[in-house]
C-alpha cells in the first residue's frame, strides 16, 4: 500500500510564520527548491478562510517536476512504422516509455507493482506495461479498455497518466490521485513539435532523486523511441 | 661528590662542616614522611581506593628531600608524573595530597588534578605533570618571572633520565643558560624511562655532562645520599640566587617499585639482583645509620620517635582522605576560565573620543608598549623580536624602550620559551610568547594545549597562566604550506584558551591590551595579510572585551559571519550583493573563544539566513559549529539551510593560481550568499566518506587549462598594482615588491636628479618602510628622464617613482 501521508517541505521560519497566521501549509505553493515553502510564500499567501488550518483535512502537496520533450524523432518514427503498415500514436509510445521508466526505478520490494493507470474521462484504466508484450499488443489492450466502461481507480498502480490537449496554459502542479504515488500529465505544445511533461510525486514514497530519474528516463525514451522496441 | 666525601670525613674530626643537627634531622624526617606516605598510598591503591594510575616515589626520597631543603617558601618546583615526593618535600600538606590521590573534594586540587597534576600555589608547588619534560621550561620561566617581579625566588625542575632525551630538556637548558635564569635542573636518573634503559636511548649516559653543551655547570651526585644531594644543591641554589645562572644536577637513584602500581617490580627490563643491590643502598637506612653512627647526631630511639610521629601524620592523612566527600558533580564546569572572563578594564564603557588612522602593526605595538609601561612584569619572548624589532617589524622600538631583559630574544625554541611564558605568567608576571607564524605554534603545542590551557582547571582554580601566544596567521600571497595556516578552531577546541582573530587595527590593539590584563591564556592570531592594513584606532586607553562581536555591516537579508581577513572579503561581497538587492549583515565575532553566539542569533532573527565564512578548514570547523548553534538556538528563524564556506581542505599551495583556488574570496562569498537566498547553500565535500551511502563518484573533471599565462585567475591575488604605468622608451624606477607584510613606504630622498646619468645598480633614491630603508637602484644604465614622486610622498609597493632612458 502506498502511504497517504506526504511531508510538506517548508523552511522552519515559514512554518513559524504560517503557525502565527493560522495558515495551513498545504494550501500554500512552495517556490523554494524542491517545492519548499519559504517565508515569502507564507507572507504572499492569500489571507482567505479556505487556507486556514481550521479548514477540512489537509490535501497533500506533492513534489513537482517538469520537462520539455522534443518530438521530432518520435514523429519520424511513427511515420516510418506507419509506412510499414503499423499504426501507432504518441500515446502508445508515451505509455510504453512510462512503463519502461517505471520498471527502471530502484524501489523497495514493497513497491513491486509497477503498473500504470491511464486517466480518461473521469475514470482510470490500469495497463500492465510488461516488456513481454509488443507495442502493438499494448495498443490493442488500451483501445479495448477505452471502449469498455471499466474503472480501475481502486486497482493498484504506481502511476497515473493523463494526456491533455495542446494549449497555451499548462498546469504547474496537480494533486495526486488516491493510491497513486506518481501522476504524469502530458500535453503537446503548440505546433506539436514538443511535449510538455509534468510529473508530481509523493516525496514520502518516492524520493525526489528517483522522481527526477523517472522523468529523465521517460524523456530520453521519448526522444529516442527506437530504444523502446528493444 | 667532593662535598659528600667532605661530609663523610667530618666523622673523624669536629662536626663543624656539618649543618645544624636540626637540618640533618629535618632531612631524615622528610624522607620518612615521603616513604611512609607512599607506602600508605600504595596500600590504598591496591585496595582500589585511589582512582587512576599511581607512580610511587619509593626509593628516590633523598633526591627530593636534599633538593627541597634549600628552597624558600617563595621558590617553586615543577615535577613529574612521579611527583608525590616533590610535592611533600616542597611542603604540601600530606592530608591534602592524600585526599587528592583519592579524588576527594579536600584534595589540594579539589579532585580535579590527581596524582599527576598536584598544584599548590601556597607552597610553591607548580605541579606534578603528566607529560614528560613539560615542567622543565616552565621552571625557566619561573626564574625569569621572579626576576621580573623583583624577587629572589628560583625555579627548580625535577625530571627523569627519560626526559633528558626530550627536546624540552635541551631547549630549556640552552634558553636558561643564555638568560642566566635562576633555575636549577634536577635530573633524577633512575636508569629507566618507564622500562627502557638509559643506555639504550643515548650513547652519552652521563647526563650531567650534557650541561657543558649549554655552558652551564653540570654535576652528578649519589641520589640515594641525601646529604650529598643537599650539599650539591647548596651550591646550585647559591649560584641561582646570586644571578650566576642555572645548574644541572643529576641525582643517580633508583625506584624500588614498578613504574606504576600494578607494574611488576622487576619486570622484563631489570633483574631482582639489581633491585636488591639498590635496596641495600636505601637512602633512609643509610642516613639513619650515618646519623647514629657517623655523625652521632641522634640516637636510634630519637629517630624511632620521629618515625612514630610521621606514622601518626600519615594515619591522619589517610583518615582525612577517606572521610573527605567526593567533589560535587555540579561543580564540574568551574575553573575553566576566570570568572568573569574579561578584566574589569575591558568592560568599562569606551570613552567616545578622538581616533586616528594607524597601521595594524603600529597600533598593536602601541598597545603592547602601553601595557608594558603600566606593568613592569610583562615579558616578551620571541625570535628576533628584540633589537631587530621582529620579522614583521611587529615589535619595532619595544627593545629600545624596555630593554633586553623584558624584550627577550629567544633561540628558535618555541617549546622552551612558550613553557617559560607559562611558568612566568603563572607566578605573577605576564608574558607574550611570539612564535612568529601560527604554524610554528605546533612546535609548542603541548605547552599551549596541555599545560597553559589546563592549568587553571587542573589546579582547581589555584593557578592560572595569563600568557599571550602571539602569531601571524592565515594566507598571504604564496607563503606556502608552512607559513599560511589559520588554526583558530584547533585552539578553540581546547577548554581554557581564549582565541582572538581580529580583523582591523583597532580591534587588534584593543584585544591585545585586554589579553595583557586578562587572567587566562590568550591565543592571539593576527591575520598577517592585514599587517599592512590601516584603520581608525581610538586614541588613549582602548580595550576590546572578549566575547563581544562587532556588527561590521548592517543588513536584513542574510547574516554573514566572518573573522580576520575574511571580514574585508565579506564587506566587498556585500557591496555586490547590495547591488543585486541582497543586504547582508556581517558579524565579526573578534574572538572565537568566547564566541558571541547571541549576536549571530539576533541577526538571524532579522535575516532568517546564515552564511559562515572562515579561513580555517571546514572539518569540525566554524561553519559546522555556528550553523549547529543556530539550529539549536534559532531553528524556527531559518528560512534556508545555513551555509558555510571555508578554505578548501588542502595544504596551502605555493603557486598563486593554486592558492587562489583554495581560498575563500569575495566572489565565492557572493555566490554562496546568493545560493542561500535561493534556498541552496553551498555543499562542501571534505567528508571523504568511503561508505556505501556516498554518491556514485563522478569522474573528476579534467583541470581546465589556463588560457594564457598572463590571464589573471578569476580570483586574482591581491597584489598591489603599480601606481603608474611607465612611459614609452623609459625603464621604470619602482618601489620594489619585497616584504609580504609591508604595503608602502615613504620617499626619503632622491640621490639622483633629472638629467643625471646613472649606471645600472647605482643608488637612485631611498624609501623608508615600516621595517627598513629600501635603497632604490637604477634598473638600467642611462639618464634619469622622469622624477614622479616627491620626498615625503607615500609610495605603494610596486609603484613607479620615475624613469630612466637607456
Task: Describe this structure as you would to a colleague.
The complex is a heterodimer of chains A (230) and B (806). With 230 residues, chain A is of the alpha/beta class. Helices cover 31% and strands 17% of the residues of chain A. Chain A has 2 domains: 12-51, E3-binding domain (Dihydrolipoamide Transferase); 63-229, Chloramphenicol acetyltransferase-like domain (Chloramphenicol Acetyltransferase), CATH 3.30.559. Chain A is built from 6 helices and 6 strands, in the order ααβααββαβββα. A 6-stranded mixed β-sheet of chain A has the order 1-6-5-4-2-3. The two termini of chain A are 31 Å apart. Chain B is of the alpha/beta class. Chain B folds into 4 domains: 2-9 and 24-321, Thiamin diphosphate (ThDP)-binding fold, Pyr/PP domains (Rossmann fold), CATH 3.40.50; 360-538, Rossmann fold (3-Layer(aba) Sandwich); 550-677, Rossmann fold (3-Layer(aba) Sandwich); 731-805, OB fold (Dihydrolipoamide Acetyltransferase, E2P) (Beta Barrel). Chain B is built from 24 helices and 30 strands. A 7-stranded mixed β-sheet of chain B has the order 11-10-12-13-15-14-20, sandwiched between helices. In chain B, strands 2-1-3-4-8-7 form a 6-stranded parallel β-sheet, with helices on both faces. In chain B, strand 7, helix 8 (226-241) and strand 8 (247-252) form a beta-alpha-beta unit. In chain B, helix 2 (21-46) crosses helix 3, helix 5 packs across helix 11 (300-323) and helix 13 (360-374) packs parallel to helix 19. The chains are: A alpha/beta (230), B alpha/beta (806). Chain A binds chain B through residues 11-16, 32-33, 36, 38-39, and chain B through 608, 635-640, 678-680.
Amino acid at each position: 500500500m502506498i502511504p497517504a501521508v506526504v511531508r510538506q517541505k517548508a523552511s522552519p521560519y515559514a512554518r513559524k510564520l504560517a503557525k502565527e497566521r493560522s495558515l495551513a501549509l498545504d494550501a500554500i505553493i512552495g517556490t523554494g527548491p524542491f517545492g519548499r515553502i519559504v517565508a515569502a510564500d507564507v507572507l504572499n499567501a492569500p489571507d482567505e478562510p479556505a487556507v486556514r488550518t481550521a479548514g477540512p483535512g489537509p490535501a497533500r502537496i506533492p513534489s513537482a517536476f517538469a520537462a520539455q520533450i522534443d518530438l521530432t524523432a518520435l514523429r519520424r518514427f511513427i511515420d516510418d512504422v506507419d509506412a510499414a503498415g503499423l499504426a501507432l500514436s504518441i500515446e502508445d509510445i508515451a505509455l510504453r516509455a512510462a512503463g519502461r521508466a517505471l520498471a527502471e526505478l530502484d524501489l523497495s520490494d514493497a513497491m513491486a507493482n509497477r503498473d500504470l493507470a491511464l486517466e480518461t474521462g473521469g475514470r482510470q484504466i490500469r495497463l500492465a506495461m510488461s516488456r513481454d508484450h509488443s507495442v502493438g499488443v499494448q495498443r490493442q489492450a488500451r483501445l479495448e479498455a477505452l471502449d469498455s466502461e471499466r474503472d480501475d481507480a481502486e486497482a493498484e498502480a504506481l502511476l497515473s497518466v493523463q494526456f491533455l490537449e495542446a494549449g497555451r496554459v499548462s498546469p504547474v502542479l496537480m494533486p495526486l490521485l488516491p493510491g497513486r504515488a506518481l501522476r504524469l500529465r502530458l500535453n503537446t505544445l503548440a505546433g506539436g513539435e514538443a511535449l510538455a511533461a509534468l510529473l508530481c510525486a509523493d516525496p514520502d514514497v518516492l524520493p525526489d532523486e528517483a522522481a527526477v530519474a523517472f522523468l529523465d528516463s521517460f524523456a530520453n525514451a521519448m526522444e529516442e523511441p527506437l530504444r523502446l522496441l528493444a | 661528590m667532593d662535598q659528600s666525601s667532605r661530609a663523610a670525613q667530618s666523622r673523624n674530626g669536629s662536626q663543624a662542616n656539618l649543618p645544624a643537627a636540626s637540618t640533618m634531622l629535618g632531612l631524615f624526617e622528610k624522607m620518612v614522611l615521603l616513604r611512609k606516605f607512599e607506602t600508605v598510598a600504595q596500600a590504598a591503591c591496591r585496595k582500589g581506593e585511589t582512582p587512576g594510575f599511581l607512580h610511587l616515589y619509593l626509593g628516590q626520597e633523598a633526591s627530593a628531600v636534599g633538593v627541597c631543603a634549600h628552597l624558600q617558601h617563595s621558590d617553586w618546583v615543577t615535577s613529574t608524573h612521579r611527583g608525590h615526593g616533590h610535592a611533600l618535600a616542597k611542603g604540601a600538606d600530606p592530608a591534602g595530597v592524600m585526599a587528592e590521590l583519592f579524588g576527594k573534594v579536600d584534595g589540594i586540587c579539589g579532585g580535579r588534578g590527581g596524582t599527576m597534576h598536584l598544584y599548590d600555589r601556597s607552597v610553591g608547588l607548580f605541579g606534578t605533570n603528566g607529560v614528560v619534560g613539560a615542567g622543565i621550561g616552565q621552571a625557566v620561566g619561573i626564574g625569569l618571572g621572579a626576576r621580573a617581579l623583583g624577587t629572589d625566588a628560583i625555579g627548580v625542575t625535577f625530571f627523569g633520565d627519560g626526559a633528558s632525551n626530550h627536546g624540552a630538556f635541551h631547549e630549556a637548558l640552552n634558553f636558561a643558560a643564555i638568560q642566566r635564569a635562576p633555575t636549577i635542573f634536577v635530573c633524577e636518573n633512575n636508569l629507566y624511562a618507564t622500562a627502557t634503559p638509559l643506555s639504550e636511548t643515548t650513547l652519552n649516559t652521563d647526563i650531567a655532562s650534557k650541561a657543558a653543551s649549554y655552558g652551564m655547570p653540570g654535576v652528578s651526585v649519589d641520589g640515594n645520599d641525601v646529604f650529598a644531594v643537599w650539599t650539591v644543591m647548596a651550591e646550585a641554589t647559591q649560584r641561582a640566587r646570586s644571578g650566576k645562572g642555572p645548574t644541572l644536577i643529576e641525582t643517580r637513584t633508583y625506584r624500588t617499585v614498578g613504574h606504576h602500581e600494578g607494574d611488576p617490580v622487576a619486570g622484563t627490563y631489570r633483574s631482582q639482583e639489581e633491585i636488591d643491590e639498590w635496596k641495600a643502598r636505601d637512602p633512609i637506612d643509610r642516613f639513619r645509620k650515618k646519623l647514629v653512627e657517623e655523625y652521632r647526631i641522634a640516637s636510634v630511639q630519637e629517630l624511632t620517635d620521629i618515625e612514630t610521629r610521621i606514622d601518626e601524620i600519615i594515619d591522619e592523612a589517610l583518615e582525612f582522605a577517606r572521610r573527605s566527600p567526593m567533589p560535587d558533580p555540579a561543580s564540574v564546569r568551574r575553573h575553566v576560565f576566570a570568572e568573569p572572563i574579561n578584566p574589569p578594564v575591558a568592560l568599562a564603557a569606551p570613552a567616545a573620543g578622538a581616533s586616528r588612522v594607524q597601521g595594524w602593526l603600529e597600533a598593536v605595538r602601541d598597545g603592547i608598549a602601553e601595557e608594558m609601561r603600566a606593568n613592569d612584569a610583562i615579558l616578551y619572548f620571541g625570535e628576533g623580536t628584540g633589537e631587530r624589532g621582529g620579522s614583521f617589524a611587529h615589535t619595532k622600538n619595544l627593545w629600545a624602550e624596555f630593554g633586553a631583559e623584558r624584550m627577550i630574544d629567544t633561540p628558535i625554541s618555541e617549546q622552551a620559551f612558550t613553557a617559560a611564558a607559562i611558568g612566568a605568567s603563572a607566578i605573577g608576571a605576564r608574558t607574550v610568547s611570539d612564535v612568529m607564524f601560527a604554524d610554528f605554534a605546533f612546535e609548542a603545542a603541548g605547552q599551549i594545549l596541555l599545560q597553559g590551557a589546563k592549568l587553571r582547571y587542573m589546579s582547581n582554580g589555584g593557578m592560572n597562566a595569563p600568557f599571550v601566544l602571539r602569531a601571524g596567521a592565515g594566507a598571504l600571497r604564496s607563503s606556502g604550506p608552512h607559513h599560511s595556516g589559520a588554526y583558530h578552531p584547533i585552539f578553540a577546541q581546547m577548554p581554557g584558551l581564549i582565541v582572538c582573530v581580529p580583523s582591523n587595527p583597532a580591534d587588534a590593539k584593543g584585544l591585545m591590551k585586554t589579553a595583557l590584563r586578562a587572567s587566562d591564556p590568550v591565543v592571539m592570531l593576527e591575520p598577517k595579510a592585514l599587517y599592512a592594513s590601516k584603520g581608525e584606532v581610538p586614541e588613549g586607553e582602548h580595550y576590546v572585551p572578549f566575547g563581544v562581536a562587532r556588527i561590521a555591516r548592517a543588513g536584513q537579508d542574510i547574516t554573514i559571519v566572518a573573522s580576520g581577513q575574511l571580514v574585508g572579503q565579506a564587506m566587498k561581497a556585500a557591496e555586490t550583493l547590495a547591488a543585486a538587492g541582497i543586504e547582508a549583515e556581517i558579524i565579526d565575532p573578534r574572538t572565537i573563544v568566547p564566541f558571541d553566539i547571541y549576536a549571530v542569533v539576533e541577526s538571524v532573527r532579522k535575516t532568517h539566513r546564515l552564511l559562515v565564512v572562515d579561513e580555517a578548514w571546514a572539518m569540525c570547523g566554524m561553519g559546522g559549529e555556528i550553523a549547529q548553534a543556530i539550529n539549536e538556538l534559532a531553528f524556527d528563524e531559518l528560512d534556508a539551510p545555513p551555509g558555510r564556506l571555508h578554505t578548501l581542505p588542502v595544504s596551502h599551495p605555493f603557486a598563486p593560481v593554486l592558492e587562489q583556488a583554495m581560498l575563500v574570496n569575495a566572489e565565492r562569498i557572493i555566490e554562496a550568499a546568493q545560493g542561500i537566498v535561493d534556498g541552496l547553500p553551498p555543499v562542501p565535500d571534505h567528508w571523504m566518506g568511503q561508505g556505501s551511502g556516498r554518491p556514485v563518484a563522478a569522474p573528476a573533471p579534467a583541470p581546465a587549462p589556463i588560457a594564457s599565462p598572463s590571464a589573471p585567475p578569476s580570483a586574482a591575488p591581491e597584489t598591489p598594482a603599480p601606481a603608474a604605468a611607465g612611459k614609452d622608451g623609459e625603464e621604470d624606477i619602482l618601489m620594489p615588491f619585497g616584504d609580504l607584510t609591508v604595503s608602502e613606504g615613504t620617499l626619503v630622498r632622491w640621490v639622483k636628479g633629472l638629467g643625471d646619468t646613472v649606471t645600472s645598480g647605482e643608488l637612485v633614491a631611498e624609501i623608508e618602510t615600516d621595517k627598513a630603508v629600501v635603497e632604490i637602484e637604477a634598473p638600467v644604465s642611462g639618464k634619469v628622464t622622469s622624477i614622479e614622486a616627491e620626498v615625503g610622498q607615500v609610495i605603494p609597493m610596486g609603484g613607479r617613482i620615475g624613469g630612466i632612458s637607456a
